[in-house]
Amino acid sequence: MNLKIAQSIFIASFKTIGYLFLLIISVLFLDSYIFTASIPNPQIIANIAMFTAFTVVYWKSTARIRELMIYAVLIGFIGEYLFSLGLGMYTYRLGNVPWYVPPGHAIVYIATIYFCKQSIIKNFKKQIEKIFTLFVWSYCLIFLIFKGDVFGFLMSIAVLSVLKNKPRERLFYLTMYVVVAFLEIVGTAYQCWYWPDTAFGVIPFLKSSNPPSGISLVYFLLDLGSLWLYKLRHRTAWSRMKLQRALVSKSTSLM
């Protein structure tokens, strides 16, 4: 991989997950302990900023992406109220579920899709997968050694184990792991939310950090749920696409 290719990959990354990282830093800062010290009730500002970003992404997207974004918001809304308020797996700063969170999940999901769809990323898919896999190992081992994050380490191992036999989905979920790692570090550093010191606060012998390193495993439910709803609504088109993929795969194996 020469310098020109590396620059092209960097530009493609910045235009998708790079913009996403800037959005994460900006919106979560508006709900952080830092901003709270000088502005009363800043969560309203964070909500407005996220809904504005969601609207811009939504109207610039294709019909399929828009539909997936709506599903992601719905699943994010249900999941947040179930996991945070219902089961107490993690807690937000004000003890609520901020309105910016469900649309934020949708933008995280769609930005990851856009990253993986770019031609330069597809052309160097294997190399990027190796880099991201190295990141996963490094990240979860650092958390395990320095923070005693056994829970996050086990979830990271589960992620890598599942992806070992899923080449088609591997880049997407590895990218999601990296994005979620960034999101969780920023969110917990800003004290927008926090995780208990054991696995979801219900398994006392399974130590966890704030945040757990492999928590992207839970975020994967967002993709699986959104795709399931999309397939349910477009059964014929999805079956046709699967048939086309099978024919292409078969013809490739015979060459």
List keywords for this structure.
255 residues; mainly alpha; two-stranded antiparallel sheet; two-stranded antiparallel ribbon; 4 strands; 76% helix; disordered C terminus
Quantity of strands, as a count: 4
Largest beta-sheet details:
2 strands, antiparallel
| Widest beta sheet: strand line-up | 1-2
**Structural class, from helix and strand content?**
mainly alpha
Low-pLDDT runs: 246-254
Tell me the radius of gyration: 19 Å
Which descriptor suits the 3D outline?
globular
What is the succession of H and E elements? HHHHEHHHHHEEEHH
- Work out the helix count: 11
Distance between the termini: 27 Å
Q: How confident is the prediction overall: mean pLDDT?
A: 88
Q: How big a fraction of the residues is strand?
A: under 5%
- Helix content bin: over 70%
Structure commentary:
- The structure is a single chain.
- The protein has 255 residues and is mainly alpha-helical.
- 76% of the residues lie in helices and 4% in strands.
- The chain starts with a helix and ends with a helix.
- The model is unreliable at 246-254 (pLDDT under 50).
Write the layout of secondary structure elements.
Layout: H1 3-30, H2 33-36, H3 43-59, H4 63-86, E1 91-92, H5 101-117, H6 119-123, H7 125-147, H8 150-163, H9 167-189, E2 193-194, E3 198-199, E4 203-207, H10 216-233, H11 235-254
Antiparallel strand pairs: 1-2, 3-4
Helix pairs in contact: 1-3, 1-5, 1-9, 3-5, 4-5, 4-10, 5-9, 7-8, 7-9, 9-10
